[in-house]
Every structure is written in C-alpha cells, then in structure tokens.
Amino acid sequence: MHAEKSDKWHIGVIGGSGLADGIALKDAQEIEVSSPFGEPSGPVTTGTLEGRRFTFIARHGAGHRIPPGDVNFRANIDVLKRCGVTDILAISAIGSLREEYAPGHFVAVDQIIDRTGARERSFFGPGLVAHVSLAEPVCSRLSGLASIAAGLAGARVHKGGCYIVVEGPQFSTRAESMLFRQWGADVIGMTAMPEARLAREAELPYALLGMVTDWDCWREEEGGVEASQILEVMHANAGLARETVDAFAGLLPQRREPSPIDHALDHAIVTAPDARDPRLAAMLDAVAGRVLGS
C-alpha cells in the first residue's frame, strides 16, 4: 500500500515547451520518465523554486510538435504522479467567448464542458472499473493561489470561468461559437480534457490558468481565429506566465494541508478484488497504488 502524501508541496506544471525556461529553478534536472500508458509528451524538468519542488512537462512536446488530439494525457499525468507530484497547475492558451474576457487576460477556470470524444479519458477500463466524482473539476485552493499569483505578476485575472473543450485541431465555426455561448461557456480550448479527468483519477488536485489569446469567432465584426495571432499573444504573455509561476511558488503555505482530492479513489473502484485484471492493476501502480495496495 502506498503511503499518504507528505505535507511537502510538489507542484507539477503542465504548459508550453518554453515555460520552464527563464524560471530560476534550483538544481534543475531534465529526466526521462517512462509510463505503462505509452510515451509522454517529453522529459520532465524538475528542481526547486522558493524551496518547493516543481516538475514541468511540456504538453505539446518540444517545439509544439504534438497536436491536441494526439497528446498522451494519460502518460503525462502518470509520469507526474511517478515523480511524486502532489498537485498540478496547468497553463494553456484559450479563446474568449465573453466580451469581458479580453485577449491578454488570464482566467482561473472553475468549470469545464467536455466536447472531446476521440481521446483516452480514463486510466481505468475493462477489468478494473472506477467512477470518480468530477462535480468540481478543479481544486479551489490551488485555483485561488494561481489567481492571486497572476495578479501579483501584473496580469488582469478573472476568478472563475467555464472552459469548453473541443476536439480540434480546427477552430470553431461561428455557429458553434454562438452555441457554446448559449451553453454558458466563457472560454474555449482543446486541452483541459481529459487532463482534468485524469488528474482526478490520479488523486492530484488540479488548477487551470488560461491565457486568453483571441475572441474565438462569435463576434460578427471579427474575422476567424488565426494561429498566428494566438502565437503572438502567447509569446507576449510568456514572461507573465513565468512570473506567475514564480509568484505561485512564493504563495504556497509552508505546510501542505491534506486535500479531499487526495482520497478521490476511496469509494470510486467498483470492480470486486477477485475480478480485477492484474495487468491493468499493475499499470495503475502509480495512479492508484494507494487503494489497490500495489
């Protein structure tokens, strides 16, 4: 049986390929970590910041070579768990579906609508079934700290917002964009799911800080979204994102108090012990070892 999490923070950061560059990580090391769920997006970079352990992984790989639908989200979350991460801060580019969320602003997402369908959405499956609660898909404690950190870094921050995740890689049609607004979505992107689902299955509190890069295409006076304009805003905000991570590290309390998400699997596994697939159970040694006894 794996031990409970320690009271020391170890933050996993999922972001762009250049996010760890320029952050003053002490004793930084780049490490290749393997996963039974396949190849992760790349190596992790681990070190300390303000005395806390941080481990970074580039969601789309070095040079942004992996499209959203081909990111191996399971492997990425699994390797972070294997590294001993206690919590995850995700940073990603998003489009705006609301007038008040302007390009250049940051949004601490608190709800998610999942419109993807072609991705591996769970670590569990036939032979070992689990159903975690996802009513609140992000951790309010982490999200609150990320909001404050972005403000300290000088960003205009919105505390809360509903993120709709589309399969991509194309951007929305205007009709889709208008529909998503009617559904109550505030921002749009291609990567929050299944990332948030898998983090919950791995018992890792997850916060998502989105950087607004464009208006999507719901504003009739605007043209369609162009990748070039997104990259331009992303590059302009790269320094701000790094400063946010620095500020976030400084805001973390000295001691990590337990989170209810640390026990998300306590009542989630429904397959009887004698009916469980031993091969899948072995693959889940990092994700679910605490409850499976591996």
List keywords for this structure.
294 residues; alpha/beta; Rossmann fold; 11-stranded mixed sheet; 11 strands; 28% helix
SSE map:
Layout: E1 10-15, E2 26-31, E3 44-49, E4 52-58, H1 73-82, E5 87-96, E6 106-108, E7 111-114, H2 140-152, E8 157-159, E9 162-165, H3 174-182, E10 187-189, H4 192-201, E11 206-214, H5 227-251, H6 278-283, H7 285-292
Parallel strand pairs: 1-4, 1-5, 5-11, 6-8, 7-9, 9-10
Antiparallel strand pairs: 2-3, 3-4, 5-10, 6-11
Overview of this protein structure:
- The chain is of the alpha/beta class.
- It has one domain (10-284): Rossmann fold.
- It is built from 7 helices and 11 strands.
- Strands 1, 2, 3, 4, 5, 6, 7, 8, 9, 10 and 11 form an 11-stranded mixed sheet that branches.
- It is globular and about 60 Å long.
- The model has no long low-confidence stretch (mean pLDDT 92).
The count of β-strands is: 11
Shape estimate: globular
Biggest sheet record: 11 strands, mixed
Number of helices: 7
CATH superfamily: Nucleoside phosphorylase domain
User: Which percent range fits the helix content?
Assistant: 25-40%
Which residues sit in consecutive blocks of at least 5 with pLDDT less than 50? none
Average predicted local confidence, pLDDT: 92
Number of domains: 1
Instruction: Identify the CATH architecture.
Output: 3-Layer(aba) Sandwich
Please state the CA-atom Rg, rounded to the nearest Å: 18 Å
- The CA-CA distance between the termini, in Å, is 6 Å
Quote the CATH topology: Rossmann fold
Reading off the top of the CATH hierarchy, the class is best stated as Alpha Beta
Q: What structural category arises from helix and sheet content?
A: alpha/beta
Sheet-strand content, in percent, reads 15-25%
Order of helices and strands: EEEEHEEEHEEHEHEHHH
